[in-house]
Design goal:
Blueprint (H helix, E strand, L loop, with lengths): L1 E7 L2 E6 L7 H10 L7 H10 L8 H11 L5 E2 L2 E2 L1 H8 L24 E3 L19 H8 L4 E8 L6 E3 L9 E2 H11 L8 E7 L3 H15 L24 E6 L2 H9 L6 H22 L2 H4 L2 E4 L7 H5 L17 H5 L15 H9 L8 E3 L2 H4 L19 E11 L1 H4 L13 E8 L8 E4 L10 E10 L6 E8 L7 E9 L6 E8 L5 E15 L1
Parallel strand pairs: 6-9, 9-10, 10-11
Antiparallel strand pairs: 1-2, 3-4, 5-12, 6-7, 7-8, 13-16, 13-20, 14-15, 14-17, 17-18, 19-20
């Protein structure tokens, strides 16, 4: 089979097109586990247990696999041929992550013991300067598993009502009631664990009263109120199922005013002024904030005195947040225990992919329990230091990328190269920011002029803090004269990866899964 590319009106370039076929190692495995060119139920069961590490599997589990393969036209009553075995390995039901979406972590610890899937400026459809405000991004975020929604509240032009907008910019405004309704109607569609609604409040007391009435009426019995009985120990996500918590954060312009009034250029002095201003706001709340509004608030957000480092190294039983208007490496916050690392979901890039990858864990419920290393002190009562040179290797991860397929079905013929098939390569990285000993990346060779690239390359990652590790893989089309073209990405939490040979589906820049593009990858985890 040939594929032709028209260079000009009189010249055509033709390329021989390969089909996706099993790598040699897969052929060898099939031969080892089958007889007479077919793999029976019992033989497949032995493979699934011994190679895929699925100890729970039984004959019914394998029969279900065979049943699904009927749709591919590669099933035979006496067993599956090599092509059927290869289709199983590349199928959606052979994911590197648990397929059930089951919440398996202990959800009965205080809320502060968990990372939360956190959005920032959740109502914006695009950039923070002149994009449109809408309920659409709120709905999309909640249906993607996000558990923290942020709204900026300002008085309208007449000062009679509160509205949602990004103050001081050209962004449009949205009706507050519509935003509250969007939260109410979508909060628990994909996860029953609590939603935190963060209000950045720029309102006078009379409008705070109106907002309090709107919030109470909209959410009714689903609204959690933090009474005295919760002062000593904040409830767990399990206890707060199907509840909405209200959080507030100090208005940015108030904090900026405190800094601008100071003539100093010393950053440490400025940081102290911001911290003191935040503290003063909470003290003044008792006198200036409408009591109806104050009584709704379960979480007071804001950086703790001393800045981010002290905030993150502080009391693990205190709910803390870290907000920023631009996306940055979320692992910087996570490795220090930050509970809410706020992200603009409308932005794209590697840091957003890492955020999306992190919260694929624990059934995608939007809550991931912090590892024990962040919740307890060491033998000498010292806090966890992610930059320590003395951390020992706990796990070795081996990642072998065999090949890939599906781009020819997801993209037009000339999407990557105008006059030839693509030149794909894959890059595999472990991202653990702040722990240089674990941070590394590799890339495959480039497979030239191939829609079905074959790499057959293994990478080895020795890990000292595997509990916080994320494996992210990107695929690009190599171009010698221009920037390499993006061809897909995925990010996987190491804590969830199933060993064995798996079909790794790729996603676009926004994190949406591509319909066909995928990689065949083998994962081996070796504890030390």
């Amino acid at each position: 089979m040939k594929e032709s590319f028209k260079v000009c009106f009189c010249c055509v370039r033709s390329f021989k097109v390969k089909t996706s076929e099993p790598p040699q190692e897969i052929k060898t495995l099939f031969e080892d586990y089958s007889g007479d060119g077919r793999m029976s139920v019992d033989e497949m069961l032995r493979f699934v247990i011994q190679v895929q590490g699925e100890k729970h599997a039984d004959s019914n589990y394998v029969k279900d696999i065979f049943h699904r393969l009927k749709h591919h036209g590669v099933f035979h009553p006496r067993g599956i041929h090599l092509e059927g075995f290869y289709r199983y390995l590349l199928s959606d039901f052979n994911s590197p992550l648990p397929p059930s979406g089951e919440v398996w972590q202990d959800m009965n610890q205080p809320l502060s013991h968990y990372f939360l899937y956190t959005g920032h400026n959740s109502y914006l459809t695009g950039n923070q300067l002149n994009s449109r405000s809408s309920t659409g991004p709120i709905v999309k975020a909640l249906r993607s598993g996000v558990r923290v929604i942020e709204l900026d509240l300002w008085p309208n032009s007449s000062g009679t009502e509160a509205e949602v907008r990004h103050g001081g910019t050209l962004t449009s405004r949205e009706d507050l009631q519509k935003c509250l309704n969007a939260v109410k109607e979508n909060a628990f569609e994909v996860s029953e664990y609590p939603v935190v609604l963060t209000l950045e409040d720029h309102l006078p007391p009379d409008l705070q009263k109106k907002v309090a009435k709107m919030v109470s009426k909209t959410f009714g019995g689903t609204l959690f109120r933090c009474t005295d009985e919760y002062k000593e120990r904040f409830p767990s996500p399990e206890a707060l199922k199907n509840k909405i918590l209200i959080s507030t954060k100090p208005p940015k312009e108030y904090l900026q005013t405190q800094v601008s009034q100071s003539a100093t250029t010393d950053e440490s002095v400025k940081a102290k002024k911001v911290a003191d201003a935040e503290e003063l706001i909470q003290e003044e709340d008792e006198e200036t904030v409408a009591i109806e509004y104050r009584d709704l608030i379960s979480i007071h957000a804001g950086n703790r005195k001393g800045g981010l480092k002290n905030c993150l190294n502080g009391d693990p039983n205190r709910v803390t947040t870290r907000f920023d208007s631009s996306n940055y490496d979320p692992l910087v916050g996570w490795i220090h225990g930050a509970q809410m690392v706020a992200f603009n979901m409308q932005s794209h890039g590697r840091f957003l992919w890492m955020m999306q990858g992190m919260f694929k864990a624990n059934g995608g419920c939007g809550y991931v329990k912090k590892p024990d290393v962040l919740l307890s002190n060491g033998l000498g009562c010292e806090s966890f230091d992610p930059s320590s040179k003395s951390l020992q290797i706990k796990t070795v991860l081996k990642v072998k990328i065999y090949n890939g397929e599906g781009w020819n079905l997801d993209f037009p013929q000339d999407y990557f190269d105008r006059y030839s098939p693509p030149d794909f390569y894959a890059k595999a990285s472990i991202g653990i920011a702040g722990i240089p000993l674990d941070t590394t990346s590799y890339r495959t060779e480039t497979d030239t002029d191939e829609w079905f690239p074959v790499w057959d390359k293994e990478f080895v990652f020795p890990l000292r803090v595997p509990e916080l590790a994320l494996l992210y893989i990107t695929v690009k089309d190599y171009d010698s004269n221009t920037q390499n073209d993006f061809a897909g990405q995925t990010c996987l939490p190491l804590s969830e990866i199933r060993p064995g040979i798996r079909a790794v589906r790729l996603h676009d820049r926004a994190g949406e899964v591509l319909k066909h593009a995928r990689l065949l990858v083998r994962f081996v985890l070796e504890p030390r």
